[in-house]
Request: fold
Amino acid sequence: MSNSLYNKRTWLNDNDSHYTGSITCAHFTELVNRGKYMEEYCFVELCDCHTKIRIHKDNNHSTTDFINKLKLIQSELQGFIDHLEQV
Reply:
């Protein structure tokens, strides 16, 4: 695996809103010590005016584990959206 960088923030409110809210997805990898090991930093962060939630991949979990966690979150959010659209 070579060096990799992904960093994207999306604002969740309209441009003319007085409120803040964003989602940030970031992934950074870098070969260090002459390619002997990989540094990795990977997270998803949801923010609003008062609260911030960061879900990150730690060194004890594989990338597959983190992807599965994100897919579960995606599924739960879709279920909640489906519910709200029906009420």
